[in-house]
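FW: tagging you since you asked about this chain on Friday. Here's the raw sequence from the shared folder, copied in full. Didn't touch anything.
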Amino acid sequence: MLNMWTFMCSQLLAMARCAAAPIHVSTRHRRRLEAIVRQRHAPQSLVMRARIIRMAGAGVGVRETARALGIGRATVQRWRKRWRASEGQPFAERLCDAPRPGTRPTFKPEQICQIIALACESPSESGRPFTHWTLATLATAAGERGIVETISAHSVGRFLREVDLKPHRTRGWINTPRDTGFASKCRDICQTYQLAPGRAAAGIETRSIDEMTGVQALERAAPTQPMRPGRPEQTEFEYIRHGTTTLIAHFDVATAAVGYRLGPTRTEEDCAPYLAALLATRSPETHWHLVMDNLNIHCSEAVVRLVAEAIGFGGDLGVKGQCAILQSMATRQQFLRDPSHRIVFHFTPKHASWLNQIEMWFSILARKVIRRGNFTSLDDLHAKITRFIDFFNATLAKPFRWTYDGKPLAA
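HL: got it, structure written out here
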């Protein structure tokens, strides 16, 4: 009889231990718990906790919850207790792990700051003939400086990532003063592009002109392998050089038609005759607007004399390098930009070749013909460029939709 009484008492005590205080789960929290359970990519530990609380809110006991989820009763009791104790806290925090003490930090904040400062110095200041730091050399230098006794490259990388420092990377920039007339020149060119269609209707021509130099005639040392399922086209790495050529081209802003000349050089003697041939394609009374960059051959003495003769200029051009219009590039550009002339030049600001529409067309030529091309000779290169330009003018020519209005891109 005593043994039976002892057994019943033990069972009652076990049931008392398994019995848990009721858990209240609001409707909003229940919906969020169900959403977590349905997520395919949610962490399994988070899903398990959400299921425990969801079942607790439905009145399921500790023993039944543990049996249904295949976990220990202690785990169920722990998360029911945490949910109850965290009443009033944000929902996400109620399902998170409790803060853990972890191990004591190996490096002091002062040491971490010194390592970061070392990474911002030039390696030459530490007597190293490097252009930039690596994590390994930083770790070695920190030990030599006495900042730390020893540190791994992994720890150095972790400290640098926390402050977003990347000594292995570099980016180019131009440390030159912005063209003093950048805003006005930029606005002038953009207005020239916007007015081109209307001017074309009135018989006024607008051209964008530039040169593409050093175009190589490269012949692949082995035939190109065509693409196959699962494998892209394969181009032979080795090549045979057959020389280079220079493409001088103009782009009609209103119609997108391209004119060109292929030759070995890009000099003053090449530029002026090219412009003369371009002007000769229209009547002598035609007005022109020519957009180009600041290359010296675009405002050379030969170009100034050509324009002066074409517009019937009767003034004194002076002597190159000495006086009057021909004195310097600035005076020659000022003459060529004169809006009262029949032929008006529009020069892009310095470091702003992206304003020249012919550069956009050059990129099309490079992508479609040159970059993956195979040229057995200079004549073959010339022939393929010529065929592409003829094809472009016949089927692809379409004016660029110019949306930039000349305002600064950044404050």
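FW: The chain has a mean pLDDT of 89.
HL: agreed, and Residues 156 and 170 are 19 Å apart (CA to CA).
FW: great, closing this out.
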